Amino acid sequence: MSELKLGVDSRDEEEQVAQVMHTLLGRLPSGAATLEVKRNSSGLILYLKPANERSAGFGIHYDGCVDIFFGKGTTFELPYESGLAKDADLEATLAWAKVVGLAVIAGNCREYAGFLGIRGTVEIDGKPYVVTSFFHFRLFPKTFHYAPYCPVNLSV
C-alpha cells in the first residue's frame, strides 16, 4: 500500500521500522554507530549516527509513510523513489530501506551538493539509485564521497 494508515496498527508498524534500524545497528561492531530515536510533530525519526566522521548518517522517518535519508540531505520517499511498485506494502518498503541502509553503512553512497540542491546516489548491487532534493543552498558546489562505517562486509 502506498499510504499506510495511522491508527490501531501504527504502533506495530513503528515497531517494524524500529526493528530495521536495530538490525542494522546490530550488524555493526560495538561503537561503530549509535541509534538516535525521536518523535515530533512530523512522526518517528530513527537515525544511525556513525562514529566515523567521514561516513554518512542513515535514517528512517515514519509518519504513516516511509522516508529514508542519508548524508547532508538526500531523502528517498518510499516506495515512489525506490523502483518498488507504487503499491508496495510496508514489508517490501522496509526490506528496501534495509538494503539502502547496508549500502550507506558500506560507504556505497555519495552526494553532489550544487547551488540549489543535493543529488544523492546510493549504489546497490552495482546499480545506482539517484534522487535530487532542491532548496539545499550551497555557495560552492561539492561532491561528498562517504566512507564505510567499518571495514567489515555487512551483506544482506
Q: What order do the helices and strands come in, and which of them pair?
A:
Elements: H1 10-26, E1 33-40, E2 43-50, E3 58-62, E4 66-70, E5 74-78, H2 90-105, E6 109-113, E7 117-124, E8 127-134, E9 142-145
Antiparallel strand pairs: 1-2, 2-3, 3-4, 4-5, 6-7, 6-9, 7-8
Helix pairs in contact: 1-2
Total number of helical segments? 2
> Quick one: biggest sheet?
5 strands, antiparallel
What's the number of extended β-strand segments?
A: 9
Low-pLDDT windows of residues: 1-8
Mean pLDDT: 89
Give me the strand/helix succession: HEEEEEHEEEE
Global outline: globular
User: Numbering strands along the chain, what is their spatial order in the largest sheet?
Assistant: 1-2-3-4-5
Terminal Cα span: 24 Å
Supply Rg. 15 Å
The oligomerization state is: single chain
> What level of helicity do the residues show?
10-25%
What is the strand content?
35-45%
What's the structural domain tally? 1
Instruction: Kindly name the structural category.
Output: alpha+beta
